[in-house]
Amino acid sequence: MTFKDEILLGIPDRLPEPQPYDPDVNHAPVRKDILSADEKHLALKNALRYFDKKHHALLAPEFAEELRKYGRIYMYRFRPAYEIFARPISEYPYQSIQAAAIMLMIQNNLDPAVAQHPHELITYGGNGAVFQNWAQYLITMKYLAEMTNEQTLVMYSGHPMGLFPSHVWAPRVVVTNGMMIPNYSGQDDWERYNALGVTQYGQMTAGSYMYIGPQGIVHGTTITVLNAARKVTSDGIAGKVFVTSGLGGMSGAQAKATVIAGGIAVIAEINPKVVKKRHDQGWVDEVYTDLDKLIHRMISAQCGRDAISLAYQGNVVDLWEKFAEDELQIELGSDQTSLHNPWAGGYYPAGLTFEESNELMVKDPAKFKEEVQKSLRRQIAAIKKLTDKGMYFWDYGNAFLLEASRAGADIVNPDGTFTYPSYVQDIMGPLFFDYGFGPFRWVCTSGNPSDLQVTDEIAASVLEEIAAHAPKEIEMQMRDNIHWIREAGKNNLIVGSQARILYADCEGRTKIAAAFNEAIRKGRISSPVVLGRDHHDVSGTDSPYRETSNIYDGSSFTADMAIQNVIGDSFRGATWVSIHNGGGVGWGEVINGGFGMLLDGSEEADWKLKTMLHWDVNNGIARRAWARNDEAVFAINRAMQENPQLKVTLPKKVEEGLVEGLVEGLF
Fold first, then answer.
1. How many helices (H) does the chain have, and how many strands (E)?
2. 580: which strand partners?
3. What whole-number distance in Å separates Cα of residue 221 and Cα of residue 227?
């Protein structure tokens, strides 16, 4: 049977043989036993409804055993025998090339070279899922292969609800993930309903089919580290040390980004399989298990002003405490453990091995939580010793400061704010998001590296033309991004699909996309290109502890922007749209939206890219301007001058001192 035949088969009438559990694959941690007996019966019924009744007697005990052993029903038996990766678009069966592009993106998210836990359908972040089980994958791929441009596939938290009649201008897929009713949105609620098979945590780009491997965050990390270094020194980042943690999923970008920036990365990671994967991929230069040897190498790199990444295979708390005890000079610090998911493998406490932690989190969740919170308090104490000596530390949007505060760490100021800033507050917000710069990305569906090289050249040329007349307020951003795209091909960033990321504003995104579409039309690019972005952007995400942490008018805890973003994208030409509860900082802490758009060289794609990208960026700038962010006010005024149809409500500034003292006198 060919690959196309297997896709079109969906769930086979004749069941495949059970597959052995592969110990060499990086598997998701066992989830805690949270369901009652009645709920376990319900979870089994929910799983069996995907299959013909004649198979229930065979599958029921198998699924029950998965639920007992792993805390979830993954349906391992139905994992495809074919290799999963982003094939050239022509190799997929399809009636709609837009749907074929989505199949390509789904398979890229589940490629073992890309995905963190591929057999559990988890792309990154420990629980960022594309689907809840393999039946959902099989049905979805079959639907996409069969659908036309007059249908829309509706996805409910990984479940393909079905194909519905629509029209050629409608999105081909609409995705929702984790959209829990607010009063049923606690940590145990999410675990329970995920275990029941009725919802999932889609992270940001995992459940919206737009992950491009750790490259997706390398660029953002590079410019964050560069600008963090500019805060502590005027003589460049060479010889400066950045200490952090996490090499799995998105955090795997930190090592590569620091080297590209020109600094020294020291990164702790406790999972040996993850360390090996990043070292094999060339994202980490050297690996150490001995802290003394690591420190010796780090000091040597400082003296030589080397650009290098050093991984410590061990616990991050041990690393921080050793550095603090030895009173080492560290310039930059952060953390990127998956603290949005602290009790199920997102953070491993000091004093326990990796294996002991995985066992404890299932057998004694309360004790595991106690150990995690104890470690967080220790980590903050060690970090404070180094920041007292001049280290610049920032929260990297992974809920590190939030969970440390909940653990009782000394991390909160008298006014309730955190001692250390979010990187969005200090860097990404005022320098990038408020001006409309964000993580624009594209994928060459041919799978041909030469097409990617052409897109790099086009993007660089477009940016250089824009930079020639760019206002001084964004000169640095333009310069850094031109340097990035000129060097991107040299840095061995491709994991999975032939993809690229580039921070660009509305003008940059629109002109680059239009140039791509023209190049496809003329045959300079051999196949369609998928456009997208990380949800971590100016407009797509409402997240008070990350993307909107530099919004100070009180609206950072509202989610109108993200919802409006997805609604607006859907009728302005997006090929698919997604809206998630959760992403980056965790379920319940954020609402985020994303899109995908296929450029096929057509005039329709020209119209869609100009209309949708303009909205996708300026929606967020308008909201940030209304919050009285000066940079966003500048950017939205510039946007209105360029497009007379854009009319945005602007804030009137209140004179300093006018309202101070009135509250005390009146109430």
1. 23, 17
2. 177, 592
3. 10
3-state secondary structure of 425: helix
H helical segments located in 262-406: 272-280, 291-304, 316-325, 354-363, 365-387, 400-406
HSE, side-chain direction, 13 A CA sphere, residue 614: 18
Of 542, 489, 505, 501, nearest to 212 (Cα)? 501
Interval 581-606 mean pLDDT: 92
- How many whole angstroms separate alpha carbon 451 and alpha carbon 529? 9
Which among 445, 324, 461 is positioned nearest to 380, based on CA atoms?
324
pLDDT digits (tens, 9 = 90+) for 269-289: 999 989 998 898 888 999 999
Residue 452 near residue 496 (C-beta atoms within 8 A): no
Query: Nearest Cα to 575, choosing from 544, 616, 546, 520?
Result: 616
- Strand stretches in 93-247, DSSP E: 122-124, 128-129, 151-156, 159-165, 173-177, 241-245
CB-CB contact of 129 with 580 (8 Å): no
User: Per the structure block, which two tokens stand in for 440?
Assistant: 């624009």
pTM given for the model: 0.89
Q: Is 208 in contact with 492 (CB distance < 8 Å)?
A: no
**Where do we find the tokens 């019924």?**
45
What residues contact 499, with CB distance under 8 A and at least 6 apart? Answer: 108, 212, 213, 215, 216, 441, 442, 443, 444, 452
Q: Which residues contact 553 (CB under 8 A, 6 or more apart)?
A: 626, 627, 628
Report which of 157, 263, 274 is spatially closest to residue 208, judged by C-alpha positions. 157
Q: Pairing relation of β-strands 173-177 and 159-165?
A: unpaired
Strand 591-599 vs strand 541-542: parallel, antiparallel, or unpaired?
A: antiparallel
pLDDT band at 255 (very low <50, low <70, confident <90, very high): very high
35 in Cβ contact with 196 (< 8 Å): yes
Answer for the pair 262, 365: CB distance below 8 angstroms, yes or no.
no
| Amino acid symbol at 366 | A
Q: Taking the mean position of all CA atoms in its chain, how far away is CA 380?
A: 25
Could you give the 3-state DSSP secondary structure of residue 117? strand
Q: How many CA atoms lie within 13 A of 116 on its CB side?
A: 26
Chain mean position to CA 329 = 31
Q: Report the chain's C-alpha Rg in angstroms.
A: 24
CA dist 194 and 206 (Å) reads 16
Q: What is the pLDDT of residues 337-394, one digit of tens each?
A: 888 788 888 899 999 999 999 999 989 999 999 999 999 999 999 999 999 999 999 9
* pLDDT at 250 > cutoff 80: no
